[in-house]
Request: fold
Amino acid sequence: MSRKPIIAANWKMNIGPAEGAAFIAEFKKLTDCSFSCDTVIVPPFTTIPAVLDALGECKCVGIGAQNVSQFDNGAYTGEISTSMLNELGLQYVVLGHSERRQYFGETDAIINAKIKKSIAAGIIPIFCIGETKDERLGGQLETVLDTQVKGGLEGLSADEVANLVIAYEPVWAIGTGLTATSKEAQEAHAFIRQLISNVFGADAAAKVRIQYGGSVNPGNVDELLAQPDIDGALVGGASLKPDSFATLVKAAK
Ligand code: PGA
Reply:
């Protein structure tokens, strides 16, 4: 089963509208809008319209949101709904990022509700999971991944799971310059795929794309992407400059 690689830029709380528009103009020049992976940029909410404008007719990059509410609409100050993302035509939403879990109290149950809401709205979740350093050192890697996968994906059909994107991001590798070795990453990805197979069946497991995230950069991307169960990357720091992100996108074939 060949899975099309997917490279996503998670800009986090960086890059305002003016810089976002300039980034897209430069990125289009550097790549000629032609590459062989799916490419996604996930800007802060208020940057999204400028990025969409700068892309214009060009559909080479899919745009995503960094979060979405599990509720429809109404008295939820500070939240953004799936229908608002639909109105902008967004294709993806990052859910369950470790920074949302750690700083904003998102639980597996909340993430599960957001994933269901997004799928119902036709938006592809990029569902993030991963262990902390203490959990890995304490031998809990597999238990943590098992809990996060089963909790986050509870109640989904095999088809729904096949069509979403999972991002394995060891928390200790995010923004730290530390990366899992390609062997560690491959082992975790293989474990996640087996887990998906056990719960949702072999077909969903063969189809679901699993990105690696955590200090991916132009120097380590080739080795990571060469692993059989690594289908792309979710990139923070190295996605903030057009030349570096263009290099990553070109590496994925
Ligand atoms: P990083 O972030 O590439 O800066 O480590 C990855 C992420 O948090 O998605």
